[in-house]
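Lab notes, practical 5.
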Amino acid sequence: MKNSQLYKGSLNTIIMRLLEEQGRMYGYEITQRVKEITKGELHITEGALYPALHKLEADGLLDVEVEKVDNRLRKYYKLTEKGTTETVTRLAELEEFIKNMQTIVNPKLSY
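Output from the prediction step:
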């Protein structure tokens, strides 16, 4: 289930949750953290990550800071105030979704 549509539909929420937890991150760092957390089960490609980051930025949910690291420019992403509020909302919605799916998929284990 490494790159299923279920994960793709949750990519923005995954990114926002990591930024909420870490404060700020750069793109490659996000991909590696997801791989680490999921023990290699989820691989986020650059082709999926950067459009998502740009969309979140365009929606006013992320700020970008550029720093020079080892003679290269690196973009760091962090949540805006609006992004922080939206993250809380999306995580609550995701928890409710998971609870409802659990009830549908395995009613015997429902809450």
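Observations recorded by the TA: The radius of gyration is 15 Å. The beta strands are 25-26, 62-69, 72-79.
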